[in-house]
Amino acid sequence: MKNICQLLSEKDFDVICPNLLNQETPFEYSQEELAYRNFTENIGFVNASEEIKSLLLDIKDKYKKVYIVGFSVGATIAWLCSEEDCLDGIVGYYGSRIRNFVGIDPLCPTILFFPEREQTFTVDQLISSLEKKNIEIHKFYGQHGFSDPYSSKYDEKSAQEALNRMVDFLLKH
């Protein structure tokens, strides 16, 4: 997250990165399952999206444009916020739980990045259910985490291509 915040800042975007975990230190990569369980049991998608919507209300008048960029759980949270009229766009990387909220129709430009495969669902099936909506979807070589340079699933080529598409999307909208 810090890398993406830094990169976007270097491209002259103001970046706000809220701490949705309500704890000082992040989970270690080896604690991925524990981190996800903590999120689902103690925070949840609805509560997290309400926290982000509240933040959006606080900042919307301070900026010409407001976007949400989310990874994994954050991508699903961005998706849940996509019906807010104060958003100018969302970017979602491997938001696997979007599959639980396919009834949402984003009101803002939306770009989603998925890996070729996920452990818990069929990526092509989710993409197929989302293609009817007016959103941009890209599938990249690799697995969940392909854009995270600290992940064992990191794929440099896919990460760079997704990053370029994200920046182009943000500049376009």
TrEMBL record:
Keywords from UniProt, A to Z, are:
Hydrolase
Keyword Transcription in record: no
Q: Which GO terms describe its molecular function?
A: hydrolase activity
* Keyword field contains Hydrolase: yes
Residue ranges of every copy of the Dienelactone hydrolase domain listed in the record: 1-171
Q: Which Pfam families match?
A: DLH
What protein does this entry describe? Dienelactone hydrolase
Could you tell me which species this protein originates from?
Peribacillus huizhouensis
